[in-house]
Amino acid sequence: MIASLTHRNSSRSEGRLLSLLLVPVVLIALGPVVRLLLEGVGVGSGLTGDHLATVLTRDSTRTALIHSLVTAAGGTLISILIGAAFAFLVALTDVRGKAALVFCLMVPMMIPPQITALAWMQVMGPSSVLLRMLGIAPPLGSPQPLHSPGGIILLLGIQHASIVFLTLRAGLRQIPADLVEAARMSGARGLKVWAQIVLPLSLPALGAGAAMAFVTALGNFGIPAMLGIPARYSTLPTLIYQRLVGLGPSVLPEVAVLALIIGVVAILGVLLGRWLLARRSYGLVGLSGQPLSIVLKGGRLPVEIALWAFIAAILVLPLTALLFTSLIPAYGVPLTLDTLTFKAWVEALFVQPVTRRAYVNSLMLATAAAAILMAVSLPLAWLMARRPSRLTRSVDALVDLPYALPGVVLSIACILAFIDLPFTDLTLYGTIWIILAAYLARFLVVMLRPVQASVSQLDPAMEEAAAAAGARLGRRLRTIVLPLAAPAAAAGAILVFLTAVNELTVSALLWSSGTETLGVVIYNLEDSGETVMASALAMSIVVLIVCLMGCVQLAARRLPKGVVPWQS
Questions:
Q1: How many CA atoms lie less than 13 Å away from 36 in the CB half-sphere?
Q2: 35-42, long-range: CB < 8 A, 24+ apart
Q3: What's the rounded Cα separation, in Å, for the pair 420 and 424?
Q4: Cα–Cα distance between 173 and 170 in angstroms, integer?
Q5: Residue 26 confidence (pLDDT) above 80
Q6: Alpha helices, H only, 219-352
Q7: Structural domains in the chain?
Q8: Residue 383, class by beta-carbon neighbours within 10 Å (0-12 exposed, 13-18 middle, 19+ buried)?
Q9: CB–CB of 506/241 below 8 Å?
């Protein structure tokens, strides 16, 4: 009986200790969003709706909202076409080199959007080094065709196609071959099987991927900023950036309203996608056959050629143009053996202090975010699985919000929350710590969900046996839960690091002198006319990201299944 009471008291103290973990999680992840909501409805100004009415009735707000919806919807449509085509062909057929195809399709998503825009601008236009080498460049003075709504839509579609691909591929792999075999035995052939069996079963996954692509495109800042601002085509993220940069913190109430508009549209997009999925959901009950695999026979080679040609068009071509631009002495000079130089590379990587500082800041922020979130997610996931309560269920439901909201919305929320820390005279605004806080809020769910799924599958009997033998919570987490959840935690850490190291949308509104990130520096260099140096720095980041992804890919066979995010 004494042992039972001791165990009960220990469990209560452990529960209270872990409950304290929820306090910083709630403050970091949900506090800024609540602060944004209060500011948007005018609580900080005496519950007035004056600035709300002012912002909503402006022509610039309506125009930016329409532009955001048009570009996000158009980009999502292109993402669906690209991602669905790749998913159906890679997941369901016997094409060769699937791992290489998936790796190459993932690279555009991992490359920062401002680098994507910069690379494609070097492919087209009168100053394109590549086109001038081929003798097909437009005359000098011709407009840049990508500085248009069509250019923004095209690049948004390419940038987010891998989101649709990954989501749809996961759904397609759950379709058992038994269904298709039964359809074929009933006389169905070819496209009829795909239209009546495969497509309906894949609609839930396709809808989920489309919703994610739409929300991501809606909050994308790098591509609309690089292509839209020169053409005076504003979206809500670029309008917020221009207002805040031009007028400073004095317009925070107004930009809070703009941020809320983006957030509401994003949430409506997600809810609409879920509603559509609920109306067209199908259950697979009682089938346990092998995954579906279609033999292409004589059509395999043409399909493979088409897939690799497309990869070359969206990846090799723009990166080649970006590389050529980084090797000329000045923008507009043709690339020849006489003009080839690495001066811009040396200047960007070794001479300019701002670029070196940006490298250090980005690598430090990405590493710190991945390490902190890994340390927090393990006990938090354990708490939600083993000590469920109304509070933990509420946090579990709301923790997705900072990631679902566009990055620019989270940036404004963090400025409002941390510009004046409560009960102190301190401020995080203008420091590197506000960027780290924003990264922790945004990427918490990326780390938490894989760990949470892994912990929920563990048998509690092992922990109960260890507790009965006298092992405290820390030891149980360290010796039982951590080893078993390590693959999921590693997968989350990889995603957090690769995403944070090239991030721009969040840090674009949070940086100050001395806290620049790589994405911010590239945008500022291009904006100031230093295209060659911007291309060199951008190309160095691409090399870094591809090398990191390549190291993970090479180690994939030695890592537990599920560690590499883009593999099954």
A1: 26
A2: 35/413, 35/416, 35/417, 36/256, 36/259, 36/260, 36/263, 36/409, 36/412, 36/413, 36/416, 36/417, 37/260, 39/252, 39/253, 39/256, 39/416, 40/256, 40/257, 40/259, 40/260, 42/253
A3: 8
A4: 5
A5: no
A6: 222-228, 236-247, 252-279, 300-311, 317-326, 343-346
A7: 21-39+48-333+343-558 (1.10.3720.10)
A8: buried
A9: no
Q: Is the predicted pLDDT of residue 420 greater than 70, yes or no?
A: yes
Cβ-based neighbour number of residue 187 at 10 Å: 7
Place of tokens 């800024």: 32
**Among the ranges 136-140, 162-166, 501-505, which has the highest mean pLDDT value?**
162-166
In one-letter notation, the amino acid at residue 175 is: I
Q: From CA 344, how far away is CA 153, in angstroms rounded? A: 31
Q: Given phi > 0 = left and psi -120 to 50 = alpha, else beta, which region is 562?
A: left
pLDDT digits (tens, 9 = 90+) for 72-106: 999 999 999 999 999 888 887 888 888 888 888 88
Angle ∠(70,74,80) on CA atoms, nearest 5 = 150
Read off the pLDDT of residues 350-381 as tens digits, 9 standing for 90 and up: 888 988 898 899 999 999 999 999 888 888 88
Q: Which of 318, 553, 512 is closest to 418 using CA atoms?
A: 512
The C-alpha angle 514, 413, 374, rounded to 5 degrees, equals 75
Token readout for 518 is: 């790589």
Q: What is the pLDDT of residue 242?
A: 85
Q: Specify the pLDDT at position 6.
A: 44
Say how far apart CA 299 and CA 252 lie, in whole Å.
58
What separation in angstroms does the CA of 165 have from each of 129, 213, 307, 309?
32, 10, 14, 18
pLDDT in tens, 186-233: 555 556 666 666 777 777 778 878 888 888 888 888 899 889 988 889
Of the listed ranges 168-177, 225-234, 421-430, the least confidently predicted one is: 168-177
